[in-house]
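Following up on my earlier thread - several people asked me to post the actual chain instead of describing it. Fair enough. Here it is, all 316 residues.
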Amino acid sequence: MAGTVLLTGASSFTGVWIAEALNAAGFRVIAPLLRERDAYADVRRARIERLERIAEVRFARALGSDALLRDVQMSGGIDVLAHHAAHITGYRDPGFDAVDALARNTAGAPDLLRAFRDVGGRLFVLTGTVFEAGEGGGDEPGAVTPYGLSKTLTREAFDHWTREVGLPFGRFVIPSPFGQLEERRFGWHLFKTWFAGATPAVRTPRYIRDHLAAPRLASAYAAYVTDALASGARTTVARPSGWVASQGAFAERVAAEASARLGMDCRVELADQPVLEEPLVRVNDQPSWAADWEETAFWDGYVAWYADLRRRGAMD
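Reply from S.P.:
Thanks for posting it. Predicted structure:
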């Protein structure tokens, strides 16, 4: 056994993949979830069912709750506290409240970190995003969108608190993930429109983004945690990169892979996008992470995932 990881946010799209990769790497995974089991339905229920096969799932364990704090105190030892959860409701809305999100992302954090340290905790890992200040490359060093600001503030808060309690602070910066188990993301828009017999519009085809398949992201996470534990360094960071391409090129790639597997004429319509409301480039810089993967099998599974959602009427 490589150790024990307490992973928040494990029921999210990327969280399930990360939990599976950690389990495959030999870690025991404890997954505290926000709600009771019956509160999860459709795609989210499918994630829970998959998560339950490889992790110790504990329901009604909100960040900042006494129940979660007791879990840590009574755990008998946790090696890694991996904080993957974040408040994202309405994250694309210009009115997204970054300060409220910060409060949600850090609820009860000082007490939780002290309890984690006291049971022998060795590493705290925070999931970040290329939309934070100082991330993503390009010409704009500041945070992108209020959501990016909330993640920047969350990072600074945990950097402070981990220093205060004497814990190593690790960061795992996520670019633009895609794959099975996603919900209402860009791929969802494409497939739902194709299944309706229409052509999806890509409103922001010029943006250069870092498209990282979920299995590669998860494998990179497990490898990073293993390496960070071994290093013993005070601060470490991973910036895994996938396919750096324009949003338009990415949409056309998905269309080609879908057409080949569905027997449908999947096309996309690329808008002109005369104005850039966000920085042109936002990408990571470590393409060597999890370089070996079964790409054909990934595309098979990705397209099959959406085909199954269509059959079950789960995209309505």
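The chain is about 40% helix and 15% strand. That should answer part of your original question.
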